[in-house]
Amino acid sequence: MSIFFEIHQDLPRAGPGDNSQTRKALSMLTDLPARPRILDIGCGPGMQTIELAKQTDGTITAMDNHVPFLEALRRRSMEEGLRGRINILQASMFDLGFEKESVDVIWSEGAIYIIGFEQGIRAWRPFLKKGGTIAVTELSWIKENPPAEVKSYWGTGYPGMKSLEDNRRIIREAEYEEVGYFILPESSWWEHYYLPMEKRMEIWRQKYGADEDVGKHLDENQQEIEMYRRYSPWYGYVFYLMQVR
User: Fold this and answer.
1) With a threshold of 0.90, does the pTM exceed it?
2) What 3-state class would DSSP assign to 131?
3) What gap in Å lies between CA 74 and CA 202, rounded to an integer?
4) Mean predicted confidence (pLDDT) in 34-57
């Protein structure tokens, strides 16, 4: 995990996404209060946190358990003049220490897989006010019958990965009202995530070329990137938005 975090350190994001997709999801939440209380779970370095603060008049609690990510977000929020609007908290998504029905929006881009999609939306629901919403991105199959290579790869790498329609069914069974969903474009994977990561890994290969452990991790990351290059029509990140009624 230390190598994982070092590879991701100082990247724009810790997973696929971009500000235009954050804005698109936010625009679909049409009945937000004037000053919403937003909880950003697994915020990473906080690109989306900054955008949420810019696009709303609310307060955002940005949560992650990796201190360097939070320190990067703290620096950026001060540079953007948003420090008073963003509360930074080191905590685990498995143990949210918030009052029941105290949050208007729970936001999580690329992190709910850690707890699991179904477990996350069920476990986090009690913290939402009536009419509150959850907006998350989740890795999903978006086309039937994926090739055997990519199916096997993600069957090992993320056994809990489900289809878009399966996740929509889970949302209904968890007694949410579906607000909407959309698939992130391929550019959301490349611009702020995979391309900067590849550049970082080139530097690491030159610096730690003789280290077998580092080389193994770099090869694993490169394999993930190559899977997406070859098989992106079959899977992607989907933004799911749901509301408590």
Assistant:
1) yes
2) strand
3) 28
4) 97
